[in-house]
């Protein structure tokens, strides 16, 4: 009986530990999803600003107007800087998506681990209950035998 009780205590501790890991994995997943959403929103804003600046840059040239070379260069540099920012944010979003995938895998693995330990715990608990029931039946039988022998 002590072996089963020890096993039950071990499984109970393992279940608590795995549950904590699962909660941590869920929190990590929520955090990475929030980070991804924020980066995607920032990327959308920067892309919109880039396209707006690009359109402003193209207007004077499309109309056929005379453009000051210094002003043209300044706009071109601003456009290149925004484009660089957009590309950097695209890379950051890509990394965030990979982090979300990894966090999702980690969450799934943690959930499976919790389910496996829960199943093992339930089996051990059932075995302890069966053992206790069998001991109770033996005690009842021995008690009835003693009462029958004393008559």
Question: Radius of gyration, Cα only, in angstroms?
Answer: 34 Å
Q: Give the rounded overall mean pLDDT.
A: 89
Query: How far is the N terminus from the C terminus?
Result: 33 Å
Question: What is the global morphology?
Answer: rod-shaped
What's the helical proportion of residues? Answer: over 70%
- What is the oligomeric state here? single chain
Strand segment tally: 0
User: Could you say which structural class the secondary elements and strand pairing correspond to?
Assistant: mainly alpha
Structural account:
- This protein is an all-alpha fold.
- The two termini are 33 Å apart.
- α1 (2-63) packs antiparallel against α2.
- The radius of gyration is 34 Å and the shape is rod-shaped.
- It has helices at 2-63, 69-150.
- It is built from two helices and no strands.
- The model has no long low-confidence stretch (mean pLDDT 89).
Comma- or semicolon-separated keywords:
151 residues, mainly alpha, rod-shaped, single chain
Present the secondary structure layout.
Blueprint: H1 2-63, H2 69-150
In short:
The protein is an all-alpha fold.
